[in-house]
Structure formats: structure tokens, C-alpha cells
Write the C-alpha cells for this entry.
Amino acid sequence: MTDAVPLAAEAVTLTLPSTAGPVEILRGVSMRVEPRERVAVVGASGSGKSSLLAVAAGLEKPTGGTVALFGRDLGAMDEDGRARLRRGRATLVFQSFHLLPNMTAEENVATPLEIDGRRGATATARDWLNRVGLSKRGGHYPHQLSGGEQQRVALARALAVRPELLFADEPTGNLDARTAHAVTDLMFELTAESGAALVLVTHDAELAARADRSVTMVDGRLTA
């Protein structure tokens, strides 16, 4: 881990084209996330929460303003450069799991480690599957796992590389209440243990209350 600020966004705007004309998605959003800090972004559907996360993670280029990850300006990089910066430092967990269907749970967790050139990828993957309670499911493919199990695999994959920043976009949105609670416990427990900062997009007020602080998106603007 470094002492660099994981995320600093200043006056970010995002305007996207539509058949009815340009649509303002983000309107002058500024946000800062400190090392080890857990921040929840809440708001109604369509308020711009997921767009903010996509811009903050470098998956979407803003129309205006600046976004820096670990002190590096994403606007000065091409797509490959942004991907290299994220690799091993900033990882993502989505509502829809995004596991590779032709790989087992163990292979899904090990693959990012192998891409990053880490030694002992298989052993590390097994260790993280054990941490999320899936030590006996490593040989199973995604279609053989429940939704909660798939999300735990996705969480293990994201954290196995020991990132400094975890982005989570509605990570419990497709889960029943009991499973969502278990996955939430794991996410907060494991980020605290690893020292990763967390940016959590959610519409769940109870989940947001577990973060160090919450900010609210309203019509593309961010309020404390």
C-alpha cells in the first residue's frame, strides 16, 4: 500500500448523446477518497451513481473536469494506460458478477493474478476462496453456483490482487436479503483487513450506513 490518495475527482462532467439531444449525466462532481476510507454513494435510480463510478474507475472518459487515481491524471492516458494503472491497484465488483463462464471459480480468481505476473496464483486463489467460504467450490463453474456464491467469487477475485481501491457497483443488487447481508459483511471485513479503500454505489441506506461516510447523487450532482 502507498500513501497516495486513491481517488480525487474535480468538477467532473459527463454529457452523452441521445436521439433527443445531449444528456447531462454528471454535473460538476467533485469527490475525494482517502487511503483505507470507505465511501458510499447513494441516490435514486438514474441519478448518475453508476456513471460516476465508471468515470472514477477510468472506464468512461468524462466530458470535463479531472479524475486522478493514485495521483495519476486519467485524462492524460489512453485506454491501455488506464487499464495498466488499475491493474493490481484498483479493482471492481459489479451487480452482475461478470465471471468468465468457461472458467472454474478457482480459475476466475487466479486469472487476474496470472495476468499481473504474480507467483503462486493458484495457491492465492484457493486461499481467497477459503476466505469467502467457498473452499469446496473452487472446481465449479459459474452456472453451477448460486448468485451469492458467484458474488463471493467476484469479491475474492477483486481482492486477491491486494488492491488499494475497490469499486463496488450495487454488489448486492441481485441477491436476497440474507445473502446480501453475508456478502456485505465479507466486503467490509476483507477491505478492512487488506487496507483497501472502498467506493460503494448502492441504493440501500442500511448498507450505506456501514461506510465511513455517505454522499448522495441527485440529478447528476453530489451532495454530502
